[in-house]
Each structure stands twice: as structure tokens, then as C-alpha cells.
């Protein structure tokens, strides 16, 4: 019969309809629909084991896709009878994932545990037999080695002892590798550089940071200025905001900026929608919320889809200069870097100023050097005098 069940999609609770098969007091839990274009996932952890009582809407399993981690929740209360996929196994949408009992009594839970114990005993017996056989097979070569008088036995190098280990790539890391290599193979990437004097922006931040925090409940950072400056420059230079689709160029009249966020499981790029219409406070609040959900693995897939331009801030890790790789199918990405005090010439005088290198990687198939350089200089001009951003003026 058709039932309504809840599942947690990267922290965004969604109501989906799926087929729940109920037979003789038990029901099946299937791999849920996890978003557009996602057909498979990897089981990374069972949070409920066979024999354990499960409450309705409680997490029983975590699945890893190439974009987010999905929490699978029990559609109703019951006892876990068996799990039908091992941790590390690939499962497909609609596959049978687990079987649960409708009876939540202690008797039902106790009945489920002997079956698990029996399976464990069978596995242990099989391992024991295998070990005995291996021991016997290894005995013969050992005797032969001892019989070979005067022949030194060379000790084999244990790679584990030498400090080498092999682990399987996570699904997200494999997807990141594929996308980065795809960008290199597809786009004609080129990077142009400039530097920006952060004096005016840092003075503005120092003067108003307390008032900003008190009124908006979020700290005033540098990202809001760079996002706003990028949005302004993207509207003025539509080629940088466009993409190549086959033999067509698709121009976007909106600005959705992807912000690269480093997480324990890999790099994710949540998207700020409609940046051209956002204020500094709205940008800071949105970035703060997206960043927090990214670090805790609670981003929804929809929050990472789309985007017309990307900003990556390697400066938070101390990067002085880099050449960022395009986030396909986007045509450009801005790289921010660490702020360092350097001697610069100002009004024919040498002064110590807080400077940041900027890098713009772009797809040369669509964007010419003139447009790329002009775009980056426009960002530099706006950041060096934030009043232009606030007043929306050229000079």
C-alpha cells in the first residue's frame, strides 16, 4: 500500500511518497529518492542494529551520495529485524534497505537478537576453518625453507609497517575528482591576477562591526563586499556570467554565486541566490547559515545546484596565491587570498598597506582577455572604495 514517510535530506526534512510493503507484522524500508540525477548511494553507517527498538522518524541509516549525506528515517515505530546492505555497499534508489517489525515489545526485540547471534556464530566458524586451512598450507613452505641449508631467507617488507596504507575514496571525493578533471579537459582555462588594497574595507569593518553585529546578529566579514562587488561586475560583464551549452551561449540575467566551503568530507559549493539584490547583511547571514550547514553535513542538494559564478577564499588557510579551477559549467571563478602588509606606492610615497592578491580563472572559449581583466579590475575598484558599492556609482 502507499504510505507517507519522512526522510532527512541533508538536514532539509522532506515528505516523500514511496511503496511500503507490509507482510505478517513487518515492513520494508527502501532506499529513498535523494534528489534529481541521484540514482545510487553508499551505506556509510547503520545507526540501528538488528534487535534494537526504533522510534518513528528515528534515523536508522546514513547514506553518502556524491553531494551530501542523507539520513534515512524509520517511517514508523518498530524493531529492526535485519539490515540488507553492508556498510560500504552501493545501493540504488528503490532497493530494499532494511526490514522492521511492527511489534515494538521487548519480546520482539529479544526474538530478533538470536538470529543475529546465529549469523555471527556461523561467520566465526567459517573464519576459524579458514584460519586452520591457511595455517596448514603455510606449514609446508616453512619446512622447505628450513631444509634449504645455507640459503638465506629474505624477509618480505610489510607495507603497513613501512607507513603505507590504502583506503577507498569516498563517493564525494570521487565526484570532486571527476568534476575537477572534467573542467581541465573541457574548458580552455586561463588565469589573470591583480591585487587589492584592503585599507578602506578594513577601516569600514573596524568602525561599524559592533553596530552591525548588534543590529543584524551576524559579524561583518569581507566576503559580503566581494560577493556584492562580484555581483555588480557580473551584471556589467554578462559574458562572465554566461555559460556555453553545445554551440549556444546562455546569458543569465540573475546572479547566483557559489561559495566554496571546506568540510571534513570534502569541498562543497552552496549557492547564494539573487546576489544582485542582496544587502551586506543578507549576504553575511546567508553565507553564515550555508557554511554552518555545510560543516555539519546538513546541506540539501538543492542548495548546491545551479550557480553562475564561484568565489573561493584560500586566504583562510594562508594561501598567498593560487590558480582556482572552474566549477563547471560556470565560466569563471574568483580566488581570494591571505591579507598581508606589503610596501606599495601611494601618491608617489612608499606606504605599508594590507594587500590581497586576487585571481580570476576563466574559460577562454567564451571570455576574452580584455573582458576578464576588466572584470577583475572592476572588483578591485569596488572593494578598494566600498562607498561605490553602497551608493551604486562608478566613481
What's this entry about, in short?
With 395 residues, this protein is of the alpha+beta class. The protein has helices at 106-147, 171-186, 199-216, 223-236, 280-295, 369-384, 386-391; strands at residues 2-9, 12-19, 22-23, 26-30, 40-46, 53-54, 59-64, 69-73, 78-83, 90-92, 96-101, 189-197, 243-245, 248-250, 257-259, 261-263, 266-268, 271-272, 309-313, 332-336, 340-346, 349-363.
What does this structure look like?
This protein has 395 residues and is an alpha+beta fold. Helices cover 32% and strands 29% of the residues. The chain contains seven helices and 22 strands. The chain has helices at 106-147, 171-186, 199-216, 223-236, 280-295, 369-384, 386-391, and strands at residues 2-9, 12-19, 22-23, 26-30, 40-46, 53-54, 59-64, 69-73, 78-83, 90-92, 96-101, 189-197, 243-245, 248-250, 257-259, 261-263, 266-268, 271-272, 309-313, 332-336, 340-346, 349-363. Strands 12, 15, 18, 19, 20, 21 and 22 form a seven-stranded mixed beta sheet that branches. Strand 7 (59-64) and strand 8 (69-73) form a beta hairpin. Helix 4 (223-236) crosses helix 5 (280-295) and helix 4 (223-236) packs across helix 6. The longest helix is centred in the N-terminal third of the chain and has 42 residues, at 106-147. The model is unreliable at 1-20 (pLDDT under 50).
Amino acid at each position: 500500500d502507499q504510505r507517507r514517510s519522512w526522510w532527512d535530506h541533508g538536514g532539509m526534512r522532506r515528505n516523500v511518497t514511496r511503496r511500503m510493503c507490509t507482510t505478517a507484522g513487518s515492513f520494508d524500508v527502501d532506499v529513498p529518492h535523494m534528489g534529481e540525477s541521484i540514482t545510487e548511494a553508499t551505506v556509510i553507517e547503520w545507526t540501528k542494529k538488528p534487535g534494537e527498538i526504533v522510534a518513528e522518524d528515528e534515523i536508522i541509516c546514513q547514506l553518502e551520495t556524491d553531494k551530501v549525506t542523507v539520513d534515512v528515517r524509520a517511517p514508523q515505530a518498530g524493531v529492526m529485524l535485519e539490515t540488507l546492505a553492508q556498510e560500504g555497499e552501493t545501493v540504488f534508489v528503490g532497493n530494499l534497505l532494511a526490514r522492521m517489525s511492527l511489534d515494538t515489545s521487548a519480546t520482539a526485540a529479544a526474538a530478533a537478537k538470536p538470529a543475529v547471534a546465529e549469523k555471527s556464530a556461523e561467520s566465526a566458524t567459517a573464519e576459524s576453518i579458514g584460519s586452520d586451512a591457511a595455517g596448514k598450507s603455510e606449514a609446508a613452505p616453512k619446512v622447505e625453507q628450513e631444509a634449504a641449508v645455507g640459503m638465506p631467507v629474505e624477509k618480505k617488507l610489510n607495507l603497513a609497517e613501512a607507513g603505507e596504507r590504502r583506503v577507498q575514496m569516498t563517493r564525494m571525493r570521487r565526484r570532486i575528482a571527476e568534476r575537477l578533471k572534467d573542467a581541465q579537459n573541457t574548458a580552455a582555462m586561463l588565469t589573470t591576477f591583480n591585487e587589492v588594497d584592503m585599507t578602506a574595507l578594513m577601516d569600514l569593518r573596524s568602525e561599524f562591526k559592533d553596530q552591525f553585529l548588534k543590529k543584524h546578529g551576524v559579524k561583518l566579514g569581507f566576503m559580503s563586499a566581494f560577493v556584492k562587488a562580484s555581483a555588480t561586475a557580473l551584471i556589467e560583464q554578462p559574458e562572465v556570467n554566461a555559460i556555453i551549452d553545445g554551440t549556444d551561449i546562455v546569458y543569465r540575467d540573475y546572479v547566483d554565486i557559489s561559495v566554496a566551503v571546506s568540510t571534513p568530507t570534502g569541498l562543497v559549493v552552496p549557492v547564494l541566490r539573487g546576489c544582485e539584490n542582496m544587502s551586506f547583511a543578507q549576504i553575511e547571514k546567508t553565507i553564515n547559515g550555508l557554511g554552518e550547514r555545510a560543516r555539519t553535513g546538513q546541506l540539501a542538494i538543492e542548495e548546491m545546484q545551479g550557480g553562475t559564478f564561484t568565489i573561493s577564499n584560500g586566504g583562510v588557510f594562508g594561501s598567498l596565491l593560487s590558480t582556482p579551477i572552474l566549477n563547471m559549467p560556470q565560466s569563471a571563478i574568483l580566488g581570494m587570498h591571505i591579507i598581508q602588509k606589503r610596501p606599495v606606492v601611494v601618491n608617489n610615497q612608499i606606504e605599508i598597506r594590507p594587500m590581497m592578491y586576487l585571481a580570476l580563472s576563466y574559460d577562454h572559449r567564451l571570455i576574452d582577455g580584455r573582458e576578464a581583466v576588466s572584470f577583475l579590475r572592476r572588483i578591485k575598484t569596488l572593494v578598494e572604495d566600498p562607498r561605490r558599492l553602497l551608493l551604486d556609482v562608478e566613481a
